[in-house]
Amino acid sequence: SLGKTGRPCAAYSIVAGDVTGDGKGDIVVDTGFSDGPDDFLLRMFPGTASGLGTGVPYGGPAQPGRAATLADLDGDGHADLVTSDTSAVDPDGFNNAGAVTVVPGTGAGLDAAHARTITLATPGVTGASEGNDLFGAAVAAGDYDADGTADLTVGAPGKYLGTGAVSVIPGSADGPTGTGSILFTPESLDHPAAKARFGTALGATTRP
Fold first, then answer.
1. Rounded to two decimals, what is the model's pTM?
2. For residues 133 and 162, is the Cβ–Cβ distance under 8 A?
3. pLDDT in tens, 86-103
């Protein structure tokens, strides 16, 4: 159980959603701190008829950053885990460009073998990845185009010298690929503002 981990809980990130697609909510806990070979350990607690089941460790390599949200980004009825790492480098090696990783959900839990990392340098994603963008500082998901599949929204508050930007990456049967993505700033909304840190926080999420 959560109460028997023997670790301080202050740094934990906890997200909820139906990963297994059985109609019961599951939670994923990310310890968010170094733990030897299990750095940033992820553990899923499946929902059962009698409450949360026993925690199942993530079966893949350590995911840097934090668990950000659970949402069905490929429309298969299973919530997918999104982790964010604002410290990830850009293609030139500059720090804090940021990245998010999508780990598909399945009936058996999280599918580490098919995890996919997305940045502003990913082919098809609008924008360019640059140091100090902080892409992933805020993450939300919702079905913004009403096609029955959740779409991903990612804040990049450091972009454009701190003006900030928000990336919207549509979901699809293949997950969020970048096709049809947009990147917008305060100026896009007719409210230009220097150093606004736009994208630092994103609103409430909705999940199909």
1. 0.89
2. no
3. 999 999 999 999 999 999
